[in-house]
Amino acid sequence: MALKKKRKGGKTVVNIILGVICLIWLLPTLGLLISSFRPAADILQTGWWNVFPHQEWKAAGETIKLPKDVDLRGPIEVNGKTYTDEQLKAGVEVDGSRLKWENRRARTISVEKQGWVTSTDLTLDNYKNVISGKEYTLKNADGSATTEKGTGLSQAFWNTLTIAVPATVIPVLIASFAAYAFAWLRFPGRKTMFVIIIAMLVIPIQVALIPVLKDYTSLGLNGSYLGIWLAHTAFGLPLVTYFMYNFISQLPKDLFESAFMDGASHFTIFSRLILPLSVPALASIGIFQFLWVWNDYLVSLIFIGNQPNVQVMSMKIADLVGSRGNDWHLLTSAAFISMLMPLAIFFLLQKYFVRGLMGGSVKG
Amino acid sequence: MKKTAKTKMSLLMVACLSLTMMLSACGSGGGPTDSAAPSGNTNNNNTNQTTTAAAGSELDKALKGEYKGTKVTMFGPFVDADQKKFESSIKDFEDKTGIDIQYEGSKEFEATINIRVDGGSAPDIADFPQPGLLASIAKTGKVVDLTKVLDQDKMKQNYNKSWLDMSMMDGKDGKIMAGIWNRSNVKSLVWYPKKQFEEAGYKVPQTWDEMMALTEQIAKDGDPAWTIGIESGAATGWPATDWIENIMLRTTTPENYDKWVKGELPFTSPEVKHAVEVMSKIWMNKDYVYGGTKSIVTTAFGDAPKPMFDNPPKAWFNLMGNFITSFFPETAKVDQDYDWFYLPPIDEKYGKPVLVAGDIYAMFNDRPEVRAVMQFFTTGESIKTWVQSGGVIAPMNDASLDWYQSESDRRMAKLVQDATTLRFDGSDLMPGKVGAGTFWKGMTDYVSGTATLDNALKQIQSGWNN
């Protein structure tokens, strides 16, 4: 009984810690979500938490007019008391109300009282601009203006999907084959090859960019989907192989022995036993690889470029802010739109994580 | 047992092989492959160019439709609205000649162009916003020398001499003409809210002293005159370099400026130190700067002009190039709500110097249609619709002042044409380690107060040493 109670207490602690971690992770996301619905001018001026009701100083409709020739650098007399310019800039509290410059140039001071405020000025403009494209105004020779609509995210979305799906499936497939071989086949040079693959993990992809680009140029693979699939496959393989190896090598040996006894070939074992058993591992590494490809900027930048017909989401989003970063408020909604796909994938595959890893596979 | 394992292995390999073959079949079947891989063909086409070199310029031939159906790839840093404006300005040319100019814009242009050139997949034409970067690539010999591609007499007619001088760079063997100037912007402009400025009874200052007197006047009236922001992400500090360059041109000879840009006049010299001190009289006075000196470093350069558009304005002056108008509120109207005045001269001796920046287009693959496009870019026509839309100044002489849609832009173009001294943004000309490195950082440290002036200048100068 006592033991059970102790275990329960431990669980609450774990849950609280998990809750705090979740909160820390979710808070910026929530801020981003709220910001994405706020007008650009509001984002610049106040924080996202201002959409919640909060106390703020509000002008109570009363203003104090000082003589025009008051010297701002000396002490300033208001209603018999003297203040400095700095105090009036920041606002000074006097008997429950606050004095602050309303218009320093006209020498007027507003009297503010505290009150509840919610700024609920929300808009869908950020999403509209991102999804269907911004509008640009071009002027003609006669002074008239034409508006042109830019391209939205849809093309980039399909491009990214076209890249991400094969770039996830190919390495995961090859890596599972390889992992099975490394785990259960005995062939000369097995250990050496495996060590080489593990060593690949620590090589930064940046060093490979120019040599690979040179080869791609001579092969004519630059800017093609095939090129970027291969690039992502190659860059992803070491980690995926290592991950799959860890999982497959942990499967009980008895399984394979009995399968061999029954006359199963390696291919049958792989397709009938390994693949179904490693669904959880495939799902999780699949999500990893998919997220990596989906969020990738560097590899796409180098190997596929920015032509509209192949441009990926991450690059399109980076371009949204304009040549000099003037439209950065659009990043809020763009981030959410690009987040949708990984979220969908995660929730679709989530049940595979939850499902027991080996649910009754070793029996008699 | 062993035998079966072997056959199964081969089965596996067959499976793998068929998989890869399937993949490659998918690849070549995919639509965009052919259109997006023009770099592969470039080498083959190089052979054609010798035959067409003689008789008539490539541009004339292109206009006759001789290069119909060819593609020219172009790579540059402008995206979004600028890209639209650029595409609309070349559309007419594309329709007339049938040459397809495939422009690719990237926010990471500076980082990518080196990789592309090294990787052998350079675009036909690249647009460099910083000539210093082009200069370093020109040294490798991968940039086509334009002296023979372009008719030099025509170039001399159509460009101010200082523009042409700036396009000569060190190639692999001797000086080459590394690029041509296509769009430019002016950096000696002080923006102000015109309507309120006039209502307040202020007058546009003609000399530096008048400007300082007006600054003091505005401070007495209750506002800080200047709004300054130098925050710009990884490039924080660059607006400060524009200030120094502007003041350098106004307090010392153009020759000294050139020496300074080349690294012969050190940052620690009295000339440079004096320029920073002149700037500090405004920057380091908390009554003159909106938000005080401390806020300069934390304010994004694009957000800095915003207080000018409050009613009444919370600040009055912002020194920035003409591209800053894209950060102004959409409701504000040029010539009515806002305008600019020329940053006044400090010492009469040095006349009316103007600081400019611009984009230089370089050519990497020599094919007749690429030549035609390059020749087209030397004409004012190539930038006409962009000029009309505002935001750029055409450096070519055949660009008519009538094209500018606003009085503000027209005055800018005139300012450039009439300038006694025209100098290019120094930090863009210096090697990246200084111009885009220690110069930015040193100025930021000085303004934020983490370094004294002397230390900051020493730190900037150290960028030349390594």
Task: Explain this structure.
The complex is a heterodimer of chains A (364) and B (466). Chain A is α+β, with helices and mostly antiparallel strands and 364 residues long. Chain A folds into 2 domains: 49-117, no CATH class; 154-354, MetI-like fold (Orthogonal Bundle), CATH 1.10.3720.10. Chain A has 14 helices and 8 strands. In chain A, helix 1 runs antiparallel to helix 14 and helix 6 (190-200) packs across helix 8. The longest helix of chain A is centred in the first third of the chain and has 35 residues, at 2-36. Chain B has 466 residues and is of the alpha/beta class. Chain B has 2 domains: 52-186 and 357-423, 3-Layer(aba) Sandwich (D-Maltodextrin-Binding Protein, domain 2), CATH 3.40.190; 189-356 and 424-465, Periplasmic binding protein-like II (D-Maltodextrin-Binding Protein, domain 2, 3-Layer(aba) Sandwich). Chain B contains 22 helices and 11 strands. In chain B, the strands form 3 sheets. In chain B, strands 1, 2, 3, 6, 10 and 11 form a 6-stranded mixed sheet that branches. In chain B, strands 8-7-9 form a 3-stranded antiparallel sheet, with no helix packed on it. In chain B, helix 6 links the parallel strand 1 (71-76) and strand 2 (100-105). The longest helix of chain B is centred in the N-terminal third of the chain and has 28 residues, at 2-29. Chain B is globular. Residues 19-54 of chain B have low confidence and may be disordered. The chains are: A alpha+beta (364), B alpha/beta (466). At the A-B interface, strand 7, helix 5, helix 7, helix 8 and helix 10 of A face helix 1, helix 2, helix 6, strand 2 and helix 7 of B.
Structure described in brief:
With 364 residues, chain A is α+β, with helices and mostly antiparallel strands.
